Amino acid sequence: MSDPLMSDPLTTNEPTVQGISTKPRDVTRTPPGPDAEDIIICREVHKWFGELHVLNGINITVKSGEVLVIAGPSGSGKSTWIRTINRLEEHQRGDIIIDGIELTNDIRNIAAIRSEIGMVFQQFNLFPHLSVLQNITLGPIRVRKIRRELAEERAMQLLNRVGIPEQALKYPAQLSGGQQQRVAIARALAMDPKIMLFDEPTSALDPEMISEVLDVMRELAESGMTMLVVTHEMGFAKAAADRMVFFDAGNIVEQGPPEQIFEHPQHDRTKLFLSQILTH
Amino acid sequence: MSASAQLPAPPQPVEEVQPPSTEVGVLGWLHHNLFNSKLNGLLTIVLGVVVLVVIIGLAQWMLFDARWGVITDNMRLFLVGRFPQEEIWRVWLALTLVSLASGLTAGSSSSGAVRMLATMLMAGQLMLAALILVSGLGLVAALALVAGAVVVLLAMLIAGRFRIRRLWTSLIWLAAAISGVLLLAGLGETSILPTVSTTVWGGLLLTMVLSVAGILLSFPLGVLLAVGRRSRLPVVRIVSTTYIELIRAVPLISILFMAQFLFPLVLPEGLRIDNVIRAIGGITLFSAAYVAENVRGGLQAIPAGQHEAAFAIGLRTWQTTVFIVLPQALRITIPANVGLFISLLKDTTLAYIIGLLEILGIGRAVLAQPEWLGTQFEVYFFVAAVFFVLSYTLSQASYRLEKELGIGER
Hints:
By secondary structure, chain A is α/β, with parallel strands linked by helices.
């Protein structure tokens, strides 16, 4: 895992405890101002898996256009939390309000919210029996009821955007991992989501394919998409995130701009985690 | 000294060393596969002699001793049972309609499996035509079957040029099926197509009707039961599970008996359900439970990530089942389901127990004829050969289908 991190120009400094360059990040976009609308509001969100208390009162507000990188040790609840945002996991206490709609058991609310939120998975989860084009157009045709020709045209634009238009008629099994993940991003974007969730999008990739996916994600961040990214790619966090959120034991222990987290981590758990993933 | 002597000798072309004759070619193959040790060599010789003796004996019997007259004299019975002679054209016409539909479908389809089935339908009709000619059943019947084969070929060629949409081929199939059934059964006593009671249906015709109807009806029912068994609604789940477990705990014969003798007791006076329909019902209900369990296995093999990805793009639960989960599950279960359908095809022979004279039933009836006593071997050999052709075609088509659908495999 060290290769992509070290080859990133932002992380080629001598490894220190923080291990991250303190150069200003290459901001090509303005982070959302204080008057941007609150697109995700979580209030005292709790979740249990049986006896296991996996989310322990999450309180956070995400502004429209904000890019959040969520880090933390495995089992700290970060994946579970972003999966509650589109109700792949149900929370048992507290409120989650997405773009003004509260997530309840109401099926219509869930469907409405899911169509506003794109999600990219660690294992890609492309549909193996459908071609790349069909993977991307399925949602627009079946959920948004868009005409097939229109949906295919839009899908080709998205494939161009993620850089693999020539793969449109292939099947997922014929693509490399990096290509598959880019198709998965295009599939999520095809629904014109307001929010994109990324659940460890590069963890299942071979090292040489990580950057092609991260490039697409950076381009997406610069376009003003609201993004919640669970990742261990600190180079990406440094370059693209507006805010880093650090999870431990089902709670947010620390958050702030990436520079602040990398330079002056306050919490012991954050310090330990950063030192562990940045020095080896 | 000549100049050439001072030059270093030109490099001799390296002689390519040939592998020894025991490694390649026929000898190599023999050496590796049949005589690679003393014991294997001995086994090869002994088994070779045994196989030779059996083949020679069988060939001698088939060519000289067998009384094939029992088959040719009764060919009509074997093919259509006691279907009335003057109405027999209706069987050939129905077959021609099916040929037309198959040909059009195969011509429009890029699937080798579908093309193979259509080709087999063509070949099968030519084989039947040959059998009919040999049996002296008349030139007309043979020509009708040859015409059927030609229809398959022409339809394939025409549809190959003008690809027909799936919607249209489906409608053509529906029309062919409905008119086929009406042709066979008739429209009523006084109409142009007088009723032909199913009690006179028999032979290969009845075998095909029972098995095709059984397969076409039990597959969708089984898929519904499989989805039902995994439903979140308790009523649906419990009903499906109970049905599946109950049916699987009972042999097919007892279900056929029940359909035959128990239904009439339960049904209101005067309402009589046709024997053939009852048999189809019994076979369908039985087979559906097994289809359901096969498909359930396929459903369970689909990873949770597929559901999550489908939900994440906003698909409803039913859409996820129809567009994402079922297509993958059905693909995985092709081998199991085709295996099931092959055994269904052969299980239709049980219908003779409830008095239906499908091809095996006809065979037994023929054996009771005094002039053909002692021809069991001929009769059962013929029946077995017919089932072999049908079953082998199905299994080969299934292998093709598996290969074709392998493109999208993970």
